[in-house]
Write a structure and sequence with these properties.
- The protein is mainly α and 240 residues long.
- The chain contains 9 helices and 2 strands.
- A hairpin with an 8-residue loop joins strand 1 and strand 2.
- Helix 6 packs across helix 7.
- The chain is globular.
- It starts with a helix and ends with a helix.
């Protein structure tokens, strides 16, 4: 138990040193541009919330997942880590949770700035008990909960892509491909499975959509935890 806690402490010490990851700087830059876009907006005509809560945050979730695994998968660290007596499953799960945690911090950040600028967050909200969406003023927790399933799916998809190809670009391709296709088609491609609540079809069901996204996220995460545990995939790469 003591050894496991020490391994966790050391792992977290690396995970918190985001300034050493080049992509982390890009995430901060993009986020600051989002904030500038909010602060420079017309108070009488605020930009639609989904531009920030969904369209803007989705790529940051993908990039934060990449940041968390960049040291291992971008620098060839997995060849060494796989030879250590540590749980690769717990490492992947910890980093996946931290990626969502960091993305949530950014999510709260832009909302606080938006509230300070415009006084309210008014967007399309769906009741979890079922029913049609209504454009209403909402709070930070409710909007975060509504978008969380899409965040989880994109993070799991990015992680799975990185582990399948054993390279960070695999995650970027898988995560950004789905986001871009869903964005440019305005939900027409994925239809009822769209990441966007804003693009849900008229005959679509919000609760079913979120449950499918959660199931997809859980399935991809489970697959990723199984795949990263196959140590021979990482050790053999070193021997090649």
């Amino acid at each position: 138990m003591k050894t496991a806690l020490e391994q966790l402490r050391r792992g977290l010490s690396f995970d918190f040193k985001l300034q050493k990851q080049p992509v982390a700087g890009l995430v901060v830059l993009i986020f600051l541009l989002y904030l500038i876009g909010i602060l420079s907006g017309d108070p009488n005509r605020p930009r639609m919330v989904y531009y920030f809560s969904e369209m803007g945050m989705f790529p940051l979730v993908i990039m934060m997942t990449l940041v968390m695994f960049q040291r291992e998968l971008g620098g060839g660290g997995m060849e060494m880590i796989a030879t250590y007596p540590v749980s690769l499953h717990l490492i992947a799960l910890r980093k996946w949770l931290l990626a969502l945690g960091y993305a949530s911090v950014l999510n709260v950040g832009w909302m606080l700035v938006y509230l300070a600028k415009f006084g309210e967050i008014k967007t399309l909200m769906y009741p979890w008990s079922g029913g049609e969406g209504v454009k209403v003023s909402t709070g930070i927790p409710a909007l975060m909960l509504q978008n969380l399933p899409a965040f989880m799916l994109l993070s799991s998809l990015t992680l799975a892509g990185m582990l399948i190809f054993r390279k960070t670009y695999g995650g970027l391709v898988s995560g950004f491909s789905v986001w871009v296709l869903d964005t440019i088609s305005r939900g027409d491609l994925l239809k009822g499975f769209t990441l966007y609540t804003e693009f849900l079809p008229v005959d679509g069901t919000f609760v079913a959509n979120r449950l499918v996204l959660l199931a997809g996220a859980g399935g991809l995460l489970g697959f990723s935890l199984w795949l990263i545990g196959k140590r021979e995939r990482w050790i053999l790469e070193e021997e090649e």
